[in-house]
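Why do we care about 3D structure at all? Because function follows from shape, and shape follows, mostly, from sequence. That is the central idea of this module. The next example makes it concrete: a single protein chain, its amino acid sequence, and then its structure expressed as tokens.
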Amino acid sequence: MPRHLRVIFIHYAFPSSARELRGENEITMMTNTKFQSGAGAVLGALAVGLSLQLGAAPLTPGEPILLPGTKGKFDFIRIDANANRLLLGHEENKTFDVFDIATRKLLKAVATGTAQDAAVDVKRGKYYVSGNDPSRMVIVDSTSLEITGEVPVTSDTDLIAFNPNTGLVYECNDKGPEVWVIDPEAKTIKTTIKLNGKGVEDLAFDPEFRHLYQAIKGKDTIAVIDPATHAVGATWPCAPSTGVHGIAVVPEQDGLLLACAGKLVLFNRSTGKLAATAPTGGRVDEIAYDPGLHVAYTAGRQGKITVVKVGADSLAPMGDVPNPSNTGSIVVDPKTHTGWIAYGKGEESFVQPFSPSSQ
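And the structure:
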């Protein structure tokens, strides 16, 4: 039996997957006395590789689902995995929309004013919504879907995150380089984190909630913040990439994904070093990561959803899917591996599922 089984995937001239695979991808699989037990994995890898080279789309779109009585574009969308819901910052409709995934129905469009983003507090049964008109954090009961409180802030809000270990909310200032740290029980701003840059974009905690990663506009950096002290402990440059936006943590591989202008960037969280980049569609806002499939999704407002396989310090483009809605909003359900987008069209708005083609 040969010591190596070498398979060459041939470069076809398909417009997305073949180009982004950058020619000939070669997999060398060492064989040993356990070759037969590993044959299934080898064949699976071959099947995936060949399907990509033959131009198979990495995602299959489902039918769009109408959100009755709503219209206009969305900002960020999130998932409440415990309640099996989509949480939609429906910016132009001036509502926070809650969509039930199981029944595929809009539960309620909560009149929060302009909503940008939301975070989930499972223990208290609350949703924290970054709202404007006026500028504030809105507290929504996750059972009744009624507004139960608010915390005024000093400027327009944008993205938001929640730390269940401390019970504090982190809300981004959309007009300047700062983050408000809010106590939702006391309904007060506990402190304000001042940052070096022109503004802030997305933010995310590591799985242990020991670090908060904040994208900084103007400087094109990631600020690593200590939630215990709210001090910036490190700053990671994204150069030569620019235009920082969405963030997603890769929990099982110690990675951090960042959407930049036309690129997906992967950092190693242990070293703070830039490990890999991959091309994406233009004007990406939000990104989503599926830890079960080790796949990242980026939604670009120039007509593409890009799918990228994430490895240990590596990124491998799997191809693009048309995004005719030009939405920048995307999230993935970790239970079903279904991706979801949200968009407005004329006087209506929709959510739409996308299923991985490999399933």
